[in-house]
Amino acid sequence: MSCFGCCMSKEKINRRSLKKSIKEYQDTKKLASFAKLSFKSDSSRRHYISEEIKKIGKGNITAKIFTFRELCVATQNFRSENLLGEGGFGRVYKGHIASTNQVVAVKQLDRNGFQGNREFLVEVLMLSLLHHPNLVNLVGYCADGDQRILVYEYMAHGSLEDHLLELPPNRKPLDWGTRMKIAEGAARGLEYLHETADPPVIYRDFKASNILLDDNFNPKLSDFGLAKLGPTGDKSHVSTRVMGTYGYCAPEYALTGQLTTKSDVYSFGVVFLELITGRRVIDNTRPTEEQNLVSWAQPLFRDRRKFTLMADPFLEEQYPVKGLYQALAVAAMCLQEEADTRPLISDVVTALEFLSVNNKNSEPAHQLDNASASPSAASPDTYSDSSGEIKSI
After folding, report:
1. For residue 341, what pLDDT is reported?
2. Does the pLDDT at position 150 exceed 80?
3. Which fold has domain 15-153?
4. Which are the catalytic amino acids?
5. Where do the structural domains in the chain lie, given as residue ranges?
6. Would you say 257 and 240 are in contact if contact means Cβ atoms under 8 Å apart?
7. In this structure, is the dihedral angle defined by the CA atoms of residues 52, 57, 59 and 63, taken in order, positive or negative?
8. pLDDT grade, residue 375 (50/70/90)?
9. Across residues 183-196, what is the average pLDDT?
10. For residue 32, what are the contacts with CB-CB under 8 A and spacing of at least 6?
11. Which of 50-64, 162-176, 349-363 has the lowest mean pLDDT?
C-alpha cells in the first residue's frame, strides 16, 4: 500500500505541475500574437524564438537546443538517402546524435510553407509540457537564423498511413489485432490531452499520417503545430479559424470554427474507419459515391447485413465478426453529426479495451458458420444509440 500511495502522490504532483505550467502558458496570452510576428532584421529573428520559448516555458522546457551545424552532421547534410518522408510542413530525415548515441527523426520545416513561427512555437511548448507514452517525445529543436527544425525520437515503423493506405506490394497488411492496438493507443493519447491536461488540449489534426509507430507498432501522436488550448470555465468551445485536413474535420467545426474536444472525437472516428476499411477518407480514384469514406459508410452503418462488406479486403476475413460489429459501432458513434451525441474519448478508450479483451477469444470470420455470422451477432443498440454513450455487448 505504501508503494501505491507513493505513486499516487507523485502522479498528483505531476498533474499539479502540468496544470500550473499550462495555466502560466495560457496566461501569457502570447499564443495569438505568434501569427503576427514580424522582424526588422535577421539578427532580431535569429534570437527571438529561443528567447520566447525560454520565457514562456518558465524553466519547464527540457528539449535540447541544437545548432543547425549539429543537425547537418546528424543527418549527413540532410542527405536524400536519409529522407523518411515529406509533406506540406517540409521534410523529415533520419539522423544520429553522436553525443547521446541516439537515432532521431529531424523535421526541417519549409520556410515558405504553411507551418510558420506560430506553429513551431506551439509544437515546442506543447510537447515540452505534455508527456505521455502515446505522444511522441520531442528531443530538441533548432531556431538558427530562419531555420525551424524539430528533433523527435525515431519511430521505426513510420506513420500509420504508411502501413494502411495505398499499401506498397512489398509491405504486409496490418492484422486485425494490431489495428485495434493502434486505435486504442491513439485514443489514449487523445484521452490524456482532453482529460488530464488542464486546461484541455484539442489536437485538431488527428489523421493517419500524424500517428507514428514504434518497433512494436505502439502508436504516438505527432505534429502538434495546430493544437489549441480548450475551453475553460463556463465556455463550451473555443472559436478559431478552420485548420486541419479536409475530410477529418468535424462538420460543426468546418462550418462555424467552433472547436471542442468532440471535434477530435469525430476525427478519431474517421481514422478508426480507415483502420477498419483500409480506405482513404477522400479517394478520387473510386466511384463517385465511394470517394468520401464517411458518406459511403453512413448508410452501411444502418444495415448490419452489410457490415462485413466494410472490412478491409487485405484482412482476408481474418477478423472476429462480432469484433467488427463492435468496432463499427464505436466508429459510427464518433461520427455522429451532432457533437453532443458523440462519446467522450475516455468512453472510446473503455470500449476499445473491451474490444481488445473480447477479440482474443473470438473466432475469425472465415471460421464462423452462417448462423454465428448473422446480423444478430451484435446488438443494434451498440451503434444506433443517440445518447452518445458507448454500450458494451
Report:
1. 96
2. yes
3. Phosphorylase Kinase; domain 1 (3.30.200)
4. 205
5. 15-153, 160-384
6. yes
7. negative
8. very low
9. 96
10. none
11. 50-64
Nearest to 329 by CA among 276, 266, 384, 250: 384
End-to-end CA distance of the chain: 34
Identity at 90, one-letter amino acid code: G
The C-alpha cell 452518445 sits at 388
* Distance separating alpha carbons of residues 346 and 222, to the nearest angstrom: 20
Residues whose CB is less than 8 angstroms from the CB of residue 387 and which lie 6 or more positions away in sequence, other chains included: 341
Mean pLDDT of the 281-292 span: 93
Residue 255: pLDDT over 60? yes
Q: Encode pLDDT of 37-47 as tens digits.
A: 444 444 454 45
Q: Which residue has the cell 526588422?
A: 40
Query: Quick check: 371 pLDDT over 50?
Result: no
> Is the Cβ–Cβ distance between 189 and 176 less than 8 Å?
no
Provide the whole-model pTM.
0.79
Q: Under a CB-based contact definition with an 8 Å cutoff, are residues 52 and 124 in contact?
A: no
Arch. (CATH architecture) of 160-384: Orthogonal Bundle (1.10)
Residue 61's φ and ψ, nearest 5 degrees, are -80, 110
- pLDDT tens-digit map of 199-249: 889 998 899 999 999 999 999 999 887 888 776 655 655 656 666 677 899
